[in-house]
Design brief:
The chain is of the alpha/beta class. It contains 7 helices and 10 strands. 32% of the residues lie in helices and 23% in strands.
Length: 182
Amino acid sequence: MADTVTTRRDGSILEVTLDRPKANAIDMDASRLMGEAFKGFRDDPELRVAILKTAGDRFFCAGWDLKAAAASEEEITANYGVGGFGGLQRLRDLNKPVIACVNGMAVGGGFEIALSCDLIYASDHSSFALPEIRAGQLADAATIKLPKRIPWHIAMELLLIGRWMDAAEAHRWGLVNEVLPK
């Protein structure tokens, strides 16, 4: 479990890496580890910027680990730790920038975690989706964050239809700051 979330410090920069093969899906333990990493970043006056990335290049993050949730009733009502799901969505008093380096698919809660960051840089093969609606659910955090980042009608299309958006389109709408080669 200790290698699930790793941090690397380079001067005033903190790099946080999520590594949960195959899809970098977040379970309760990973969320708590991420929360502690970002809380440490927030509380350390020497750190100025954090970079969130994930291992592998197929998935940035698939969001909530549905297999872990299905295996444990506790997972459904779990305390995801400081900062809420993924450690960023509800982290109070974070007044330093966090950069998401999206390399692969950012799906559901993974997309929401990217939206919790101040800047999003994506590889050219990355894509974004909120497929929860296809299962009769709304993507909680995205319903608030996404319409603030891109035009209303595009946000509603992603939220209410669950369609996928590639990195180039995400950049066109201003969701992604820059698209970079893989």
